[in-house]
Design goal:
The structure is a single chain. The chain is an alpha/beta fold. The protein has eleven helices and eight strands. It has one domain: TIM Barrel (Alpha-Beta Barrel). Strands 1-2-3-4-5-6-7-8 form an eight-stranded parallel beta barrel, surrounded by seven helices. Helix 4 links the parallel strand 3 and strand 4. Helix 6 packs parallel to helix 8 and helix 8 runs parallel beside helix 9. Bound molecules: SN-glycerol-3-phosphate. SN-glycerol-3-phosphate binds next to helix 7.
Length: about 210
């Protein structure tokens, strides 16, 4: 499973990319707002740090307006993936953009039916939101498993990005389900290397080396 970083913070992207494990970046309007910067400025910097898909989200609007925004975003760099919301207008926009060769990531996916619409429209990526699924009292593990089954049953080319990742449990259920990608906030990425027995083992070896 490829690891993407889910942030618009340049320092976090720089640090995590330096470990050689980050294959792409996802942003959303909340993450951009947190940085207090313009989307285009942030994206221009990110493309220099990571050579892989970089998701930049359009503002929710009519299909025509989202298509216009998408064409502008796609001009910034070849790695730009335009994030489009899961609405009928969004699906219409994805159908048009996929025929133009503009890569899309359909976001805010909470069901197999929604994932199927994104896949049928030719989306490059679809993003089921695991954490928000759990917040609402539903089963995120079933969601990611079922969407992988859907993709495999029909051989859709759309890649699945497990998103709204809040914990190592979310990372691990996504990997075991067969998700193509998980997009992970910095804090959870950093937690992936931690294990108390590793810390204990390091101490034993360090003491022995003295
Ligand atoms: O990739 C989508 C993600 O950023 C949403 O995460 O934690 O706001 O549900 P969260």
């Amino acid at each position: 499973m490829k690891l993407f970083i889910d942030t618009a913070n340049i320092e976090d992207i720089r640090e995590m990319a330096s470990y050689g494990i980050i294959k792409g970046v996802t942003t959303n309007p909340s993450l951009i707002a947190r940085e207090g910067r313009k989307l285009e400025d942030v994206i221009q910097e990110i493309v220099k740090l990571v050579d892989g898909p970089i998701s930049a989200e359009v503002k929710e609007a009519s299909a025509e307006e989202m298509i216009a925004q998408a064409r502008e975003l796609a001009k910034i760099h070849k790695n730009i993936v335009v994030k489009i919301p899961m609405t009928w207008e969004g699906i219409k926009a994805v159908s048009v953009l996929s025929k133009e060769g503009i890569k899309t990531n359909v976001t805010l996916c909470f069901s197999v039916s929604q994932a199927q619409l994104a896949m049928e429209a030719g989306a490059s990526f679809v993003s089921p939101f695991l954490g928000r699924m759990d917040d609402a009292g539903f089963d995120s593990e079933k969601l990611i498993n079922d969407i992988v089954i859907l993709r495999d049953n029909y051989g859709y080319a759309t890649e699945i990005i497990a998103a709204s990742i809040r914990s190592l449990h979310h990372v691990e259920i996504s990997a075991l389900a067969g998700s193509d990608i998980a997009t992970i906030p910095t804090k959870v990425l950093k937690a992936m290397i931690k294990h108390p027995l590793t810390d204990k083992g390091l101490k034993i070896f360090a003491d022995a080396a003295k």
